[in-house]
């Protein structure tokens, strides 16, 4: 059984301040990376305990590269996402995806560090006219290979969004947003226990989850915060300007759900 773990940072157990996910705050960020590595090691161990034979992990936050290889569980394989390749090794041979350390979409009340792809630029994203966040975008990308998202970890708002977007999915809630920029966190031993129990249940039952496959051909649409952020797309023939801040593109494959 093959499991893919896409690990973002905002929803990681114990991370409760914005500075812990921003590399310009060196000592806070180093602490955040430490928490992320501990948390990933817990979920990787749980996957193998529950019967996984191969586990691939991508650390994706800010382009990736949070984990130090010497500190990681040596049974898994580690990679970093690239442009258009959210989960580079993912293919039809995988049995499930775990969206780990995730966050709610832009504009979510009490979503810790809520955003969609770019907290500086993206106000709203729509796939086939349905508003969704990174959970939906990544689940649809995995859907091109018929691989379901089996578990999502993060704050309570993230879990709520995961169930609204995907339906049946295991959720590990390890924190609660207090406004946008702070979170109330479970202590690490409890959070790690929640991660372990949830991951073991998800992997054992991974055949029961359904891939997320919005109808194709379809459309993707982004509304930016300001109109100048959409200006650059004027010249692209496959992109339609809907209004000052909004662009839309027709796509034929789920591999293009984030192809602006
Ligand atoms: Zn992130």
Features:
about 260 residues, alpha/beta, Rossmann fold, seven-stranded mixed β-sheet, globular, binds zinc ion
Provide a descriptive summary of the structure in words.
- This protein is 25% helix and 26% strand.
- The protein is α/β, with parallel strands linked by helices and 260 residues long.
- The chain has one domain: Rossmann fold (3-Layer(aba) Sandwich), CATH 3.40.50.
- It has a seven-stranded mixed beta sheet, sandwiched between helices.
- α3 links the parallel β7 and β8.
- α1 runs parallel beside α4.
- The longest helix has 24 residues.
- The protein binds zinc ion.
- The site of zinc ion has 4 residues, from loops.
- Zinc ion (ZN) binds next to loops.
Question: Would you spell out the secondary-structure blueprint of this structure?
Answer:
Elements: E1 2-7, H1 26-49, E2 54-59, E3 77-79, E4 96-102, E5 122-127, E6 130-131, H2 134-143, E7 149-155, H3 156-166, E8 170-178, E9 182-185, H4 188-204, E10 218-224, H5 228-231, E11 239-243, E12 246-251
Parallel strand pairs: 1-2, 1-4, 2-3, 4-7, 7-8
Antiparallel strand pairs: 5-6, 5-10, 8-9, 10-12, 11-12
The structure holds zinc ion.
Gist of the model:
The chain is α/β, with parallel strands linked by helices.
């Amino acid at each position: 059984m093959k499991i893919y773990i896409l690990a973002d940072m905002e929803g990681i157990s114990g991370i409760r301040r914005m500075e812990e996910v921003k590399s310009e705050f060196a000592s806070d960020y180093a602490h955040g990376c430490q928490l992320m590595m501990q948390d990933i090691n817990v979920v990787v161990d749980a996957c193998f305990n529950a019967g996984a034979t191969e586990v691939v992990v991508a650390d994706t936050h800010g382009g990736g590269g949070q984990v130090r290889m010497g500190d990681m569980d040596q049974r898994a394989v580690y990679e970093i996402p690239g442009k258009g390749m959210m989960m580079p090794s993912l293919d039809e041979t995988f049995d499930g995806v775990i969206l780990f350390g995730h966050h709610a979409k832009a504009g979510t009340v009490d979503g810790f560090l809520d955003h969609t792809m770019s907290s500086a630029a993206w106000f709203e994203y729509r796939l086939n006219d349905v508003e969704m966040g990174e959970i939906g975008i990544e689940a649809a990308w995995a859907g091109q290979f018929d691989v379901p998202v089996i578990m999502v970890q993060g704050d309570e708002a993230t879990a709520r969004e995961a169930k609204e977007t995907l339906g049946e999915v295991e959720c590990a809630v390890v924190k609660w947003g207090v406004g946008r920029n702070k979170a109330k966190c479970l202590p690490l031993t409890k959070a790690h226990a929640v991660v372990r129990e949830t991951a073991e249940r998800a992997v054992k039952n991974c055949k029961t989850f359904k891939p997320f496959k919005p109808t194709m051909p379809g459309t993707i649409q982004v509304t930016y915060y300001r109109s100048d952020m959409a200006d650059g797309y004027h010249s692209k023939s496959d992109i339609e300007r809907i209004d000052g801040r909004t662009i839309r593109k027709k796509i034929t494959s789920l591999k293009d759900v984030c192809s602006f």
